[in-house]
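Appendix B: complex inputs.
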Amino acid sequence: MDAIIYGCGRLASMLAPQLVQSGYTVTALDSDMSRLDSVVEEPQIKGVLIADPMMHDYLQEAHINSTELFLAISDDELQNALVAQVAKHIYNVPQVVCRLDSPQLQQLYSGLGLEVVGFSILNLFNDIQQAIRLD
Amino acid sequence: MYIVIVGCSSVGYHLTKVLLTAGHEVTVVEKNQTRCQLLWDELGSVVIEGDGTDERILKSAGTARADVFVGAADLDETNLVACQIAKHVFQVPHTMSIIKDTKNEPLFEVLGIDVVVNATHLMVTALEEGVPGRPLLHLMNPRVPDLELVSVSIPADSGVVGKRLDEVELPPHSFISLVVKKDGANLPSNELVLESEDEVVAVTMTGEEHTLYEILTGV
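Resulting structure:
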């Protein structure tokens, strides 16, 4: 089973070892070498350094054609939206997860069939309400 | 027509001016504050400062009543998200976008962007055409992957000069579609004789184009 993680931050470095433990072969993509290195620590995790004009070539280098799982979790939600839709609609990856932080984009892309994750203003709102015991 | 454009660098700027001159109503959304001020001086109230991927900004630009929406920003992801908001949130009937990464074209089309202008491909083709000698031109980016539509100019010393088309052995997946001579375009026929400076338009595969080129231009 192959998984691709697009965007290497703290989230990716927590997720990658977990995926390896669950039996995935993980390929991590990032445009920053040091961020990539922070995720690629085990032999089961492969890193691919990406640069702008050849995105599709890097995705193919990461075997996107045969991957089971694609996580678009970089800090740039617009890039996540684009690359997640590439994975879903061009390479037909069975499971695609897309991180979006703006509530409007979360709503739009959930409606368009992406599996969306991200900070939820509504949850924060509820948490704050509870914290200060406001009814 | 009411047209909303996102991005006002060179393409967005000139498009805005052309459309205004043609009598259309235009609003252009630009993120960069300095650029906005300069544009405001010249174009006036058609400029809105803000992020074209923010639904609220697009709402204030009147996207809900737009007939046409254009993504003309510098990044493909900005144009894609802006067009998808226009199409799905504001039901704009006609969305158009420029793209920089040539390989993003199929995605934009699958997602229902009505007109996708492959900016890099257009520029590369134009530059390629400008190189002296004009060896092999890519005429368009066909929908089928690996399929190429090319044009080759026959040099005077080519081995195919004076040959009939049925005497020219082409690679298996290459087909001559048109032969443009000085007196005009000719559909290919077995008897058609190739001459120096003929433009041969052919359909070929990515892996074969070099062989085709060698056959048509080799001594």
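The CA atoms of residues 159 and 219 of chain B lie 5 Å apart.
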